[in-house]
């Protein structure tokens, strides 16, 4: 068992600043980089990989080198692509502005023409009141109901095409990469090397793990519905340009009806709308190329297939460069055949826009690195008095070093939800296993904790079994998020890591709970609306999911969690915490 002096030496290296603000509920990720003494510097992925091999920090692997070379080729094409996309977005903005101006002009001309032809001669003196009801967002009469309004809309769009011209042609994007292979073979490491190399080169870029991406999609869908579906929002858009027009009130009413019909059409295509804002950097006034790095891509249920298919397809079509990792080849992601037609279209598009590469190595390099490192210094076991005493000593020493004042905190999650932190001190937090995994919480809660605390103490972790299968599922998700945010984990556990996940012979431990969207009302409504958009029925999907996750899938989850727990104890991982954890990138 390690001594507290060994442990505190590792942890106290992380000290950076004792004054930090808790972040909000956004999803900002700092990509993992494999460096030790200096902040990451921009260099090609292959160069970074080769240097780490030369320094003895990585063991050379021909499969990894092949993938690093593929990333290097992609990296070399991005600078020119960024310039092409900057020019494209300038032309696109000009085209969109001109088209909107012409659209409004055409609508006013149409309305005035209808007025001259006496179309509204039958309207009585209460026209002003009718318009007032439009402004209040109430349902009004349709001047051209049904097919007529749709035909009118299409004719107007055709006129706009002839007046303004077609949409600017988007530059051809470099092919992205889809990397798949076994646990610990280096997929995430290589992707993060690539992501780090694009810092300062590409403005619109994001890196998500599956859990975080699904929560981001859910958040954006909720925001879109709130902004576009509420009566107050509709009132604002109508009044902003129609109400002040110097035209007859009857004309304004017709224009309001046409505008509202356009908004209704847009609401039927929510996934493309969400995709268009998925990678947007709100702080940047200039748009260019976009990159999406997606770790551990999965298709765990019908909602995931539909949402990911709609959003990814849109992003690929509009020039986003996709880099993804997975345990499976693309065609093997949906082994149970859920929504096969939608899935096949998505995979065909993915194969068109991405180079598919397998890392064929059977070696779990996280374990190799751990064997070459010093004794495990912050995974303490078993749960005896000596371990508990060491755990308490370590907590006191670390919190004293960071200021000594231990307080509670409340973190924002989603949809107004919060998660309480019982004990914390300037970036360090403490929990029991039961508190984090014994309650109905999910990925959003763990992301909030992982983002705000660089060092997390978790005590009394039991051996996992079917008797506590729900807790085991949550713990796997918790480990994923602590690893994804590059947290330092200090824990006391009942067993060694390799004996922690038990009970698979009795049944599965892994299910979809970790992918829930945290509020039953929001979850069911958003899932229902998205499935309805795709004319999809979720009937029968639970049994299909159980079948899909009854064997190999949960074994991947167990192996990944154990592998990550091992890597999180290595010096290479720990030395990166102070550079890579979001806490150290927040304003003072």
UniProtKB/TrEMBL annotation:
<feature type="coiled-coil region">
    <location>
        <begin position="78"/>
        <end position="119"/>
    </location>
</feature>
<protein>
    <recommendedName>
        <fullName>AAA+ ATPase domain-containing protein</fullName>
    </recommendedName>
</protein>
<dbReference type="GO" id="GO:0016887">
    <property type="term" value="F:ATP hydrolysis activity"/>
</dbReference>
<keyword id="KW-0547">Nucleotide-binding</keyword>
<keyword id="KW-0067">ATP-binding</keyword>
<dbReference type="InterPro" id="IPR027417">
    <property type="entry name" value="P-loop_NTPase"/>
</dbReference>
<keyword id="KW-0175">Coiled coil</keyword>
<dbReference type="InterPro" id="IPR005654">
    <property type="entry name" value="ATPase_AFG1-like"/>
</dbReference>
<dbReference type="Pfam" id="PF03969">
    <property type="entry name" value="AFG1_ATPase"/>
</dbReference>
<dbReference type="GO" id="GO:0005739">
    <property type="term" value="C:mitochondrion"/>
</dbReference>
<comment type="similarity">
    <text>Belongs to the AFG1 ATPase family.</text>
</comment>
<dbReference type="GO" id="GO:0005524">
    <property type="term" value="F:ATP binding"/>
</dbReference>
């Amino acid at each position: 068992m390690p001594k507290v002096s060994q442990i505190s030496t590792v942890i106290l290296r992380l000290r950076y600043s004792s004054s930090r603000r808790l972040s909000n509920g956004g999803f900002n990720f700092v990509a993992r980089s494999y460096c030790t003494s200096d902040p990451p510097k921009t260099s090609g992925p292959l160069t970074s990989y080769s240097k780490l091999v030369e320094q003895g920090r990585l063991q050379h692997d021909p499969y990894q080198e092949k993938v690093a070379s593929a990333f290097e080729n992609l990296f070399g094409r991005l600078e020119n692509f960024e310039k092409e996309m900057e020019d494209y977005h300038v032309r696109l903005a000009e085209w969109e502005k001109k088209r909107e101006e012409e659209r409004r002009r055409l609508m006013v001309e149409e309305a005035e023409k209808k007025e001259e032809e006496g179309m509204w001669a039958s309207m009585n003196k209460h026209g002003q009141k009718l318009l007032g009801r439009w402004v209040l967002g109430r349902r009004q009469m349709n001047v051209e109901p049904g097919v007529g309004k749709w035909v009118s809309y299409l004719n107007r769009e055709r006129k706009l095409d002839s007046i303004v011209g077609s949409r600017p042609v988007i530059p051809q994007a470099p092919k992205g990469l889809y990397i798949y292979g076994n646990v610990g073979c280096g997929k995430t490491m290589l992707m993060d090397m690539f992501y780090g190399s694009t810092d300062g080169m590409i403005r619109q870029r994001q890196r998500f793990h599956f859990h975080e991406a699904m929560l981001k999609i859910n958040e954006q869908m909720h925001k879109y519905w709130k902004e576009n579906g509420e009566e107050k929002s509709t009132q604002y858009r109508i009044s902003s340009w129609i109400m002040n027009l110097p035209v007859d009130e009857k004309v304004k009413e017709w224009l309001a009806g046409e505008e509202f019909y356009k908004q209704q059409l847009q609401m039927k295509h929510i996934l493309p709308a969400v995709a268009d804002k998925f990678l947007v950097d709100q702080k940047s006034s200039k748009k260019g190329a976009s990159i999406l790095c997606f770790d551990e891509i999965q298709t765990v249920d019908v909602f995931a297939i539909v949402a990911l298919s709609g959003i990814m397809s849109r992003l690929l079509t509009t020039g986003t460069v996709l880099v993804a990792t997975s345990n499976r080849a693309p065609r093997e992601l949906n082994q149970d055949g859920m929504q096969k037609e939608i899935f096949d279209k998505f995979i065909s598009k993915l194969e068109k826009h991405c180079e598919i590469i397998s890392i064929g190595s059977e070696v779990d390099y996280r374990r190799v690195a751990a064997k070459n490192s010093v004794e495990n210094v912050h995974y303490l076991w078993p749960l005896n008095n000596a371990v508990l005493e060491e755990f308490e000593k370590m907590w006191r020493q670390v919190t004293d070093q960071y200021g000594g004042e231990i307080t509670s905190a409340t973190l924002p999650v989603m949809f107004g939800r919060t998660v309480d932190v019982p004990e914390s001190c300037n970036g360090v937090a403490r929990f029991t296993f039961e508190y984090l995994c014994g309650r109905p919480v999910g990925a959003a809660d763990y992301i909030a904790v992982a983002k705000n605390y660089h060092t997390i103490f978790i005590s009394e972790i039991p051996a996992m079994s079917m008797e506590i299968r729900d807790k085991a599922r949550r713990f796997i998700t918790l480990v994923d998020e602590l690893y994804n945010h590059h947290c330092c984990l200090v824990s006391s556990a009942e067993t060694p890591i390799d004996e922690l996940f038990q009970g698979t012979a009795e049944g599965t431990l892994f299910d979809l709970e970790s992918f829930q969207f945290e509020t039953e009302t929001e979850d069911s409504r958003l899932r229902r609306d998205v499935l309805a958009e795709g004319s999809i029925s979720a009937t029968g999907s639970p049994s299909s999911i159980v079948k899909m996750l009854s064997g190999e899938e949960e074994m991947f989850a167990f192996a990944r969690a154990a592998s990550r727990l091992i890597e999180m104890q290595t010096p290479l991982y720990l030395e990166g915490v102070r550079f890579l954890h979001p806490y150290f990138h927040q304003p003072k």
